[in-house]
Amino acid sequence: MKTPLASPLFLLLGCGLLSGLGACQRQLFSGPTPPALLATDPAVRQLQFGYGSAYSSHRTTYTLRADGVLLAQAGIGLPTGSPPTAALKVPAAQARAAFRRLAALSADSLYFEQPGPHYYFLEGCTAAGQPVRLAWGRPDTLAPHGARQLYQQLQALLPPSL
């Protein structure tokens, strides 16, 4: 008597699909780097800012490190840890001023999540280690005033070619 091969093959295929679906779960944190993973050591502290589109999933992220190095990434669905596409050095005084302004954000301005179809964001940690995560863009809301000023200060660091 012959055993049908279709039954074991379907079982094997079904197990493979189920295990593959488990690996496709979406991460709970949508930003490039969870604030808990950002170091608070002054030599490696970093501040991420940029903008994106919920329609196209395109995101442009700039990372300012405390040592004045500014890294840029742009792309669709940027995965965590993807390499930067550009790097430049900003004056140390301007980098320190940006980190001072980040530390000066009021306690109620450290978390604000109101992204719209086109959004702006700021992420990082204060010198005291408090996570900062701000995303705004909805037409009916405004980000905290200090966050908007910091974002404008950071945008001024970018050269026109970047």
Description:
The structure is a single chain. The protein is of the alpha+beta class. The protein has a single domain (35-156), classed as 2-Layer Sandwich (Mago nashi protein), CATH 3.30.1560. Helix content is 26%, strand content 28%. The protein is built from three helices and seven strands, in the order αββββαβββα. The protein has helices spanning 6-23, 92-103, 145-156, and strands at residues 46-53, 58-65, 69-76, 86-89, 111-114, 118-125, 131-136. It has a seven-stranded mixed β-sheet, covered by helices on one side. Strand 6 (118-125) and strand 7 form a beta hairpin. The longest helix is centred in the first third of the chain and has 18 residues, at 6-23. It is globular. The termini are far apart. The relative contact order is 0.16.
**Architecture, according to CATH?**
2-Layer Sandwich
In order across it, which strands form the biggest sheet?
Answer: 4-3-2-1-6-7-5
CATH fold field value? Mago nashi protein
How widely separated are the two ends? 71 Å
Question: Which series of helices and strands comes N to C?
Answer: HEEEEHEEEH
Secondary structure tally, helices: 3
Topology, pairings included?
Layout: H1 6-23, E1 46-53, E2 58-65, E3 69-76, E4 86-89, H2 92-103, E5 111-114, E6 118-125, E7 131-136, H3 145-156
Parallel strand pairs: 5-7
Antiparallel strand pairs: 1-2, 1-6, 2-3, 3-4, 6-7
